[in-house]
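Q: How would the structure tokens look for this protein?
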Amino acid sequence: MEKELIIAKIKQSGLVAVVRAEDEKQAEQIAIACMVGGIKAIEITFTIPGAERIIASLARKFDPHECLIGAGTVLDAETARTAILAGARYIVSPYLNIDTVTLCHRYRVPIMPGAMTIKEVAECLEAGADIIKVFPGELFGPAFIQAVKGPLPHAQLMPTGGVTIQNVSQWMEAGAVAVGVGGSLTAGAKTGNYQAITDTALAYMALIKKAQSNGLAVPI
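A: Here is the predicted structure in token form.
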């Protein structure tokens, strides 16, 4: 799948599910529950032991046109390459690492480094980031998106952390192209309630689609 199509599909979906888990089995169950709930982009974080095996397994099972499997908490180029070879369609990092950006450009894989100041957002843009992860989002709130897009209207921003059912519409209205959601989406896994994850995913997607249809989200 072409890089541009992957980016378009992430923006069209509007939500990237951030999967952190205790082991490979739980991670896969969370991912499947998210997919059933209509989420089209799943981020498997490298905080999970054997993350590359989970990525490879999910990438084999799911057509990228149905669901994009990516890698998160990627701290360096070596990990990015491991993830890409396992089948990751995009790479997400909590901060900007130039070597990681360079490697992703080499393989034409979308790269989403993190930023938490307008200076860092500008540096991500200059480095060639495809989407910039505003992280940790709970420290700022939706007003930060509006503030950044004043001087940098072309910045493609994806807040992660602090995005909830209660405020996801506000993030989209502020100009986010997508949101990254972890704990507030996947909490049901702690008790084995994967249906709760699916139900929560459905609720998130309904709000995001409503925002997009009302013209609140940044155009794709």
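The two ends are 17 Å apart (CA to CA).

DSSP finds ten helices and nine strands in the chain.

Upvote if useful.
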